[in-house]
Design brief:
Blueprint: H1 2-157, H2 161-240
Helix pairs in contact: 1-2
């Protein structure tokens, strides 16, 4: 039996080896197939993950795009609202500018006339003080002349002619000084009279400027009230617009 088995085996040995080889190749092919399936599965999972990430990115970008468009619309509304505000303020200011400019001119004129009055008042005070000094000097000189004349009379009565001559020269010198003081006093009083006249004119100009300032300020106040009412109406209209941002 063993011989028969060996004989049969020898006959089919090559075929068995070929079968074994084919079985090995089949196993290798099956292993490669399994590996290919595993790679395909891994690639599919990776592709699904990438597709999920891509879809998430696309959704985020679409959301960002919607946010950007929404913000752009909001900013556009804010820009329109701001432009309307600026235009309204410019219109209000244009209504006030002529009256405010006129008021500023009136204030400058009143301040200028007041400053001129103050300067003239100081000048008058200085001239009055100077005139008082000149009068005091003149009066002292006159008193000295009177005293010298009395002394001269006594010297003449005592026949002290040398002393009388000296007193006469002293009286002449004081008389000349008195004339100089009189001329200086006359000049100062003339300057004082001119300063007082100018001060009177300046006060009249100041009163006129103050009256004009009161008139202009009253008119400007009326116009400002009118513009305030215009502002209230414009703001009510602006608030009623649905595009006005909160």
């Amino acid at each position: 039996c063993e011989e028969k088995i060996q004989l049969v085996s020898s006959k089919f040995e090559k075929q068995l080896r070929r079968v074994d080889n084919k079985r090995l190749k089949l196993d290798e092919s099956q292993k490669k197939l399994e590996q290919g399936k595993q790679k395909a599965t891994d690639m599919a999972e990776e592709l699904a993950l990438k597709r999920e990430v891509f879809q998430s990115d696309c959704e985020n970008r679409r959301r960002q795009a919607r946010d950007v468009h929404r913000e752009a619309r909001r900013l556009k509304g804010v820009r329109r609202f701001t432009l309307r505000n600026v235009n309204m303020r410019n219109r209000w200011q244009k209504l006030l500018d002529p009256h405010q400019e006129e008021r500023n001119k009136a204030r400058k004129a009143a301040e200028s006339t007041k400053g001129e009055c103050n300067k003239l008042m100081e000048s008058c005070a200085s001239l009055e003080a100077e005139a008082d000094v000149q009068r005091s000097h003149r009066e002292q000189t006159l008193l000295q002349i009177t005293s010298l004349e009395a002394a001269k009379l006594q010297a003449a009565q005592a026949k002290s002619f040398k002393e009388a001559g000296r007193l006469k020269d002293e009286i002449a010198r004081h008389t000349d000084k008195s004339k100089e003081l009189e001329e200086a006093l006359t000049q100062v009083e003339g300057s004082l009279a001119d300063a007082r006249r100018q001060l009177g004119e300046a006060r009249e100009a100041e009163e006129a400027a103050q009256a004009e300032l009161q008139r202009v300020e009253s008119q400007c106040s009326v116009e400002e009230l009118r513009v305030v009412r215009r502002q209230l109406r414009d703001l009510e209209k602006l608030r009623a617009r649905p595009t006005a941002p909160a």
